[in-house]
Amino acid sequence: MQLKPYSQAAENNKNYILEQLKVYLPDPVTVLEIGSGTGQHAVYFSAQLPHLQWQTSDLECNHSGIAQWIEESRANNVAHPINLNVQDGHWHEFKAEAVYSANTAHIMSWDRVQDMIKGISAMLPRGGHWFQYGPFNVAGQYTSQSNADFDAWLKEDDARRGIRDIEAMTEFAYQYRIKLLADMSMPANNRLLIFKRF
């Protein structure tokens, strides 16, 4: 049997993120996770927040690993992954009142990040929340040397990748009726940005 995919980073940050999800998602809603990766966050958050329905998504190549985590958990409030490519333009097909995504903005090109924001705006109802976790620059500056090194590594692999500026994310999102509510400092020089559709 194939081993489940595993991310140590997902284990390290899950409790910190969970505390914020508890605050901002107290009521029963469906959460669309963009880029579920290994599936660890989906399984953990759905178990800790049983009032939420968690919809995983990713490129098809990652579906089998996510499905392994879900099947082993036997959770009844987390759904098997759907295929989601942010530039496909099928956002109207997704039904959710909140969006969660971790460590995705820096591995996409800026154009694809903009596509993601446009799609989230088109899908989220007014008052819906979007949670974006990962490393971000503040005022155009790296928040740590490790983030600067990570950014250089990302761009060496693909020049279109890179750590995004919070201000650029915020300004672009606001054009699509999404405003930044909170910027939470997280472990390992990461941040949790919490947005709301208005």
UniProtKB/TrEMBL annotation:
Q: Which InterPro entries match?
A: DUF938, SAM-dependent_MTases_sf
Which processes are annotated in GO (biological process)? methylation
Alphabetically list the UniProt keywords.
Methyltransferase, Transferase
One Pfam annotation, family name? DUF938
| The keyword tRNA processing is annotated on this UniProt entry | no
Is Transferase one of the keywords? yes
PANTHER family, A to Z? UPF0585 PROTEIN CG18661 (PTHR20974:SF0)
Q: What is this protein called?
A: Class I SAM-dependent methyltransferase
- Coiled coil located at which positions? none
Molecular function (GO) terms for this protein are: methyltransferase activity
